[in-house]
Amino acid sequence: MVRRLCSIAYLVTNKERNLVMQPFDPAAAYAASRHTFGEHGGVNMSIEASSTFTVMAASTMPAIFAGDRTPDRDGCFLYGRHFNPTVYALASELAAFEATQAAYCTASGLSAIGAVITQLCNSGDHVVASNTLYGGTHALLGEYLPAKAGVHTTFVPISDLDAVEAAFTPKTRLLYTETLANPTLVVADLPRLAEIAHRHGVPLVVDNTFCPIFITPSRFGADVVVHSLTKYISGASDLIAGAVCGSSELIAKMMDLHMGSLMLLGATMDSRIAFELALRLPHLPLRMAEHGRRTLEICSRLEKAGAHVRYPGLESHPQHALIRSLANPGYGFGAIFTVDLGTTQRANTFLERMQNQHHAGFIAVSLGYAETLMTCSAISTSSELDDASMRAAGISPGLVRLSLGYTGTVDDRYEQIRESLQFVGALG
Ligand SMILES: *Cc1c(COP(=O)(O)O)cnc(C)c1O
């Protein structure tokens, strides 16, 4: 299944993947993957609340430690930081959604990202990454890993494919991007980025947190897909969680008892959290479709009213055709959109008007909640970037990012946003 290149064995060819030309429905793939009953025949999976597992024959232990007997092979579990049956079942369902061979669930999105990068890179290695990333990821690549691990990153505008190509060095071990950049909503051209990465013999790693269900990066050549499950996939803003989706070989390497970043840095998920998340996956496609339907409707109306709105579902978005070519039909284009209000002060007035006057949402970081969450990116989720990085990424001081919820009526929500924009003089 997996082609070996430059000793990095996580590249799956499009022929092997054999999917790209056929339409893909993640909800159908998920439904087909669901075969976990509870311990007593329950319709929900059981919570396996054990940190350690017995064997019938003591002589089985060495084979489990060597990785020869696994949850997949012989149903062998060892210890909760390694694999847990409930976490494992959730991971299998996420792998089905993302059309990857395997997945592993982690304590947070950032721990999933850190584990992937430290697995693929040794000290002295190099990463090529988009210059517009979640603030924590930007700090991890730009500050933490150079200091702590000697892994250095060149940040490039991800839609400038020549710049991406030119940034590669013989030490480059991965190409990293977000499907939809936070908060500029630049769409990554996944097929062409995969082509560049693979030509250099390295995997394309994609953070798909903004686009669950409606974009499936593995179908366009992404070798590893990471998620913050904290956002849409949880959907309730009540927990922190993440996942790594990729080849079985990569996940096995990350679980290696000697050199596995997941095993040794210990960022595993608790089984109780895995159970909570498993209950929410059946309605994730419904939620995404409704998020997308409402956001497109409201953004279209705001645009007509003269607002500087940016949403990839709008035809005015410079990469609308690209996102259309990437999107699985029927699930829309997500709930994240931005309005540029020019100055941070106007942005703050708008946010307070929305929250305190209209009760139209919360001034809060994060996204993918049932209610609208909104922030001024420059002073919040992108504040890890210095001024030059902020400018390079195209984040203006008055840029407001909204993650539209699905409570209330579309008419009411539109009117609340429109009035708040008008209040700060941002219409027409
Ligand atoms: C929130 C987020 C992360 C980090 O996830 P946590 O679950 O908070 O650790 C990474 N990438 C993106 C795009 C995010 O939105």
Short account of what is shown:
With 428 residues, this protein is an alpha/beta fold. The chain has two domains: 26-282, Aspartate Aminotransferase, domain 2, CATH 3.40.640; 285-423, Alpha-Beta Complex (Aspartate Aminotransferase, domain 1).
Tags for this model:
428 residues, alpha/beta, Aspartate Aminotransferase, domain 2, Aspartate Aminotransferase, domain 1, 2 domains, 7-stranded mixed sheet, 5-stranded mixed sheet, 16 helices, 37% helix, disordered N terminus, binds pyridoxal-5'-phosphate
Kindly describe this structure.
- It is a single chain.
- 51% of the residues are buried.
- The N and C termini lie far apart (55 Å).
- The chain has 428 residues and is an alpha/beta fold.
- It folds into 2 domains: 26-282, Aspartate Aminotransferase, domain 2, CATH 3.40.640; 285-423, Aspartate Aminotransferase, domain 1 (Alpha-Beta Complex).
- The longest helix is centred in the last third of the chain and has 21 residues, at 284-304.
- Strands 3-9-8-7-6-4-5 form a 7-stranded mixed beta sheet, with helices on both faces. A 5-stranded mixed beta sheet has the order 10-11-14-13-12, with helices on one face.
- Helix 12 crosses helix 16 (410-423) and helix 14 crosses helix 16.
- The protein has 16 helices and 14 strands.
- Strand 6, helix 8 and strand 7 (204-207) form a beta-alpha-beta unit.
- The structure holds pyridoxal-5'-phosphate.
